[in-house]
Design goal:
It is globular, with a radius of gyration of 18 Å. The protein is an alpha/beta fold. It has a four-stranded parallel beta sheet with strand order 2-1-3-4, sandwiched between helices. The longest helix is centred in the C-terminal third of the chain and has 23 residues, at about 215-240. The N and C termini lie far apart (about 40 Å). It has helices spanning about 10-20, 45-60, 85-100, 120-130, 140-150, 165-175, 195-200, 215-240; strands spanning about 25-30, 60-65, 105-110, 135.
Length: about 240
């Protein structure tokens, strides 16, 4: 459970906060949605938590438990998928940020594990415009750098859902959560211009878009290491006095 729920005590948080000029909290945001027949519904939450845990191992940040249900409306055609509205997710993140500020933690980094959480970008933009310190991580450029460093063959366009990247991260971080089938489930649908209207079911019968057969634990390890390195720029920017 410590992989998903931080084991900190209040004294741990107090001690960590005393050693930094500005406290940074990291909030993983996942989803509960279909990921084909071989990855669990909680895949995006597991990925977001793996990234956040890697960050917490390298930087003095306050690691929060994940938001596990978010905006997965494009996956509604598959059993097990659960969503909340974008308005609700917006309010949840804003409320968490406000609560943190009241306790002296004035920086929030949202680690997003689900591409359909478009509203998180709005939350960060609006908060930044109000003078609050918030960031959304990883950016597409961070994923691209991680993809290249890890030797991921599939492009970010093709690796849309339950593909090489997600399979690799789970093979490294949670191999016990995978079921057989990823080796033979490759499916490509690069032209998805009507995704918002048709949903995922308009492009895939299996729920998979990508090449999971190319996934490996070694790639997963390097993906997370690269993202932790990329986070350094965010940490410096958010904790500076400028």
């Amino acid at each position: 459970m410590s992989d998903l729920v931080p084991a900190d005590t209040t004294e741990d948080v107090r001690t960590r906060g005393a050693g930094v000029s500005r406290q940074v909290a990291v909030l993983p945001v996942g989803s509960f949605e279909q990921h084909g027949a071989y990855l669990p519904l909680a895949t995006d939450t597991l990925v977001a938590c793996a990234v956040a845990r890697e960050i917490a191992g390298a930087y003095p940040v306050h690691l929060l438990p994940p938001v596990t249900i978010s905006c997965s409306h494009e996956h509604a055609a598959w059993p097990g998928t659960v969503s909340i509205s974008s308005v609700t997710l917006h309010a949840v993140v804003r409320d968490i940020a406000a609560s943190l500020r009241r306790s002296g933690v004035d920086v929030l980094v949202v680690v997003n594990g689900h591409g359909g959480n478009y509203v998180l970008g709005n939350v960060v933009q609006e908060s930044s415009a109000r003078g609050e310190r918030m960031a959304l991580f990883p950016a597409a450029e961070d994923w691209e750098a991680a993809r290249e460093r890890a030797g991921v063959v599939t492009s970010l366009l093709t690796d849309m859902h339950a593909g090489e990247i997600e399979t690799s991260i789970l093979l490294h971080a949670h191999p016990e959560m995978l079921r057989p089938g990823y080796e033979t489930s490759d499916f490509v649908a690069d032209d998805r211009r009507h995704l918002l209207t048709l949903g995922m079911s308009g492009y895939t019968d299996s729920g998979v878009i990508g090449r999971p057969s190319l996934g490996s634990a070694e790639k997963g390890k390097e993906l997370l290491a690269s993202l932790a390195d990329s986070f350094g720029v965010y940490f410096s920017m958010l904790t500076s006095d400028a």
